[in-house]
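Weekly structure sync, notes
Attendees: PL (lead), two postdocs, one rotation student
Agenda item 3: pending single-chain targets
PL asked that the sequence for the first pending target be pasted directly into the notes so everyone works from the same version. It is reproduced below exactly as submitted, 134 residues in total.
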Amino acid sequence: MAEHGEKDEVEWPPHLDAMTAAPKNHRLLWEDAQVRVLEVTVQPGEREELHHHQWASVMILLSRPNYVNYDAKGDEIEPAIALPADPTFPHATRLPPQRPHYVEVLCGEKQALHAIRVEFKTPEEAGGGYHERT
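Predicted structure, written out during the meeting:
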């Protein structure tokens, strides 16, 4: 297992990091030793490349159309964020690290999936050791 603050490159392969594997959909807004902030955009009819998010985060959804979430095997999985029937945006929620996955926004949607993801690189920044993995 990796030491505190180090990446486990077997469990979290660097080539599947969101910025490396799916750069078209993840734009870096800020990064330092403790935090990385990404803008996430997936257009209607678009499918992201397979990628992971190895750190706990706060996701701020600015818009969320209907989409399908897939795991590394291509099997459909539940969306990372369960929304109420009539959500108000922006909508913020905490997320644990996410295993390799990809999202496909349905073709007929009128808007993109658009979010800001604040990733906490250390358990302390994530809020008292919050580092659950899914």
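Discussion points:
- The chain is about 5% helix and 40% strand.
- Strands lie at 26-31, 35-42, 51-53, 57-63, 67-71, 76-77, 91-95, 98-105, 113-120.
Action: rotation student to compare against the earlier draft before next sync.
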